[in-house]
Write a structure and sequence with these properties.
The strands form 5 sheets. Strands 1, 4, 5, 6, 7, 8, 11, 12 and 15 form a 9-stranded mixed β-sheet that branches. The protein has a two-stranded antiparallel ribbon with strand order 2-3. The relative contact order is 0.20. A hairpin with a 6-residue loop joins strand 13 and strand 14. It folds into 2 domains: 31 residues; 388 residues, 3-Layer(aba) Sandwich (Alkaline Phosphatase, subunit A), CATH 3.40.720. Helix 9 packs antiparallel against helix 10, helix 11 runs antiparallel to helix 13 and helix 12 packs parallel to helix 13. It contains 14 helices and 17 strands. By secondary structure, the chain is of the alpha/beta class.
């Protein structure tokens, strides 16, 4: 007995004869074979054109003239509380310890940290706010140095995301997807623009150390992975103590000449493997060995800040000579950009303020405030700010209601994906811009929302790419940073 016919596809399956099937599919096997041969030819062609290291430095090139040639991305891990830093809400002073209205929360998903609370008491910011610059941007008293740059900064107070927990939220912000395994923004930039130097990586990652750490989120190579892009576009992590890169120096008894001879032999073997098999990861290995050899000379010079003038060091504050501090890390970022590094990613923990907002935020702002000012002034003095895009922000915002105990002197804030603040400067970003508005509770966006996809599309535009055309073929699809959902360039943020 035949199964019931539920659709036209079922009917076709019942009526399609064996002869008809082979007639319609007569070209399928030949087409598959041709595609396979073409793919092998493409791989072999790539393997035979020029030295491997030259191919790594190449790029697909921008679609139009970029405004930014470099990016310094300062990610504040944990989610800085926007209402304590940039999103001034003076009306909340009258709401102290009153419950957040259900009409404002409107059934929003809660984390397990506060889902069991019987109340959601509002915690106004303890900090005073000061208006800065001609743009009139209100900022916390904790950021006096940052306030001096208000008219050179572009503030986005209406960022939003779907992610509510750290791991997927950071991954989303860095890669455009909450699931690990996709290329990050730095890798896309490396793939698109290529290298400006032959002695340092195109994409470098630094994990800065907080001066008073209380709680930290896990930061690892999954965030600077090249994903489905070739391995040479992954970020290279520099350590904050000891050798910046493990095993970069020759072991005792091994001279540079011996190392060079060894690498030449390895390269010959790897090149033969590449020609025979065509695995792109072999090409990556060749390039990494060569880069490591050249970095033996370039990295010590890069990390030695003795050549910096006293006035330059003073720009960054007291911690600048402390390796691994945020101040030292942003100085390293300037030195890298100056030497042609395309993308520098700096992570700083310490912003996961479920409790002790006052203490943790005071310390965190002290870590970043003057160094961010110093970085911008230093880049500007060297003529690099106009071509270097600086990005500052976290993975989401924080709630206006308190998590845990509440007093006027201290409180905690839970994760909040519906609105948060980021800022950009230099590299084609429109200084003095204040984009987007939230309600009186800093809970919902009321004007000009900017999704993570929109933000990524805008950054890609500043780097010279149409985000819809900037793709990489993977698993039969033209993959892109902004994914398949709608994303737009926020033109109001562009100079």
């Amino acid at each position: 007995m035949n199964p019931p016919i539920r659709s036209p596809l079922d009917a076709l399956g019942l009526n399609l004869t064996r002869r008809r099937f082979f007639e319609q599919g007569s070209h399928l096997l030949g087409g598959a074979a041709l595609a396979s041969l073409a793919a092998q030819d493409a791989v072999r062609g790539a393997a035979s054109v020029g030295p491997a290291i030259d191919r790594v430095a190449s790029a697909i090139g921008p679609h139009f003239a970029p405004k930014a040639k470099h990016v310094i991305y300062l990610h504040m891990v944990g989610g800085p509380p926007q209402q304590d830093l940039f999103d001034y809400k003076p009306k909340m002073d009258d709401w102290y310890d009153k419950d957040l209205p259900e009409s404002i929360r409107n059934g929003q998903r809660l984390t397990t940290m506060t889902s069991g609370q019987t109340r959601f008491p509002i915690a106004p910011s303890k900090f005073k706010f000061v208006q800065h610059g001609e743009c009139g941007m209100w900022m916390s008293e904790l950021l006096p140095w940052t306030g001096k740059m208000a008219d050179e900064m572009c503030f986005i107070r209406s960022m939003h995301t779907e992610a509510i927990n750290h791991e997927p939220a950071i991954c989303y912000m860095q890669t455009g997807n909450q699931i690990v395994g996709r290329p990050c923004l730095g890798s896309w930039t490396s793939y698109g623009l290529g290298s400006l130097n032959s002695d340092l990586p195109t994409f470098v990652v630094l994990v800065a150390r907080s001066t008073k750490p209380e709680q930290a989120q896990a930061i690892g190579a999954r965030l600077w992975s090249s994903g489905f892009l070739p391995g040479e576009y992954a970020g290279v992590s520099f350590r904050s103590a000891g050798d910046p890169i493990l095993y970069i120096n020759n072991p005792p008894g091994v001279s540079d000449a011996v190392r060079r001879t060894t690498l030449d032999g390895l390269q010959a073997l790897n090149q033969r493997t590449l020609e025979q098999i065509g695995d792109p990861e072999t090409r990556t290995r060749i390039a990494q060995y060569e880069m490591a050899f050249r970095m033996q000379a370039s990295v010590p010079e890069l990390t030695n800040i003795a050549s910096e003038s006293a006035s330059t060091l003073a720009l960054y504050g007291d911690q600048v000579k402390d390796p691994g501090s945020f101040a030292n890390s942003v100085l390293m970022a300037r030195r890298m950009v100056e030497r042609g590094v395309r993308f520098v990613q700096i992570y700083l923990n310490h912003w996961d303020t479920h409790g002790n907002v006052v203490g943790r935020l005071t310390n965190g702002c002290k870590d970043i405030d003057q160094p961010c000012y110093g970085l911008m002034q230093d880049l500007k003095a060297r003529g690099l700010l106009d071509e270097t895009l600086i990005i500052w922000g976290g993975e989401f915002g924080r709630t206006v209601y308190s998590q845990g105990g509440l007093s006027k002197e201290n409180y905690g804030r839970d994760h909040h994906p519906r609105c948060f603040t980021m800022w950009m400067a230099g590299g084609g970003a429109k200084g003095g811009t204040i984009h987007g508005e939230t309600d009186d509770f800093s809970y919902n966006i009321v004007k000009d929302p900017v999704h993570i996809r929109d933000f990524h599309a805008t950054v890609m535009h500043l780097l010279g790419f149409d985000h819809e055309r900037f793709t990489y073929r993977h698993l039969g699809l033209d993959q892109r940073l902004t994914g398949v959902e709608h994303a737009r360039v926020v033109t109001d943020l562009l100079a």
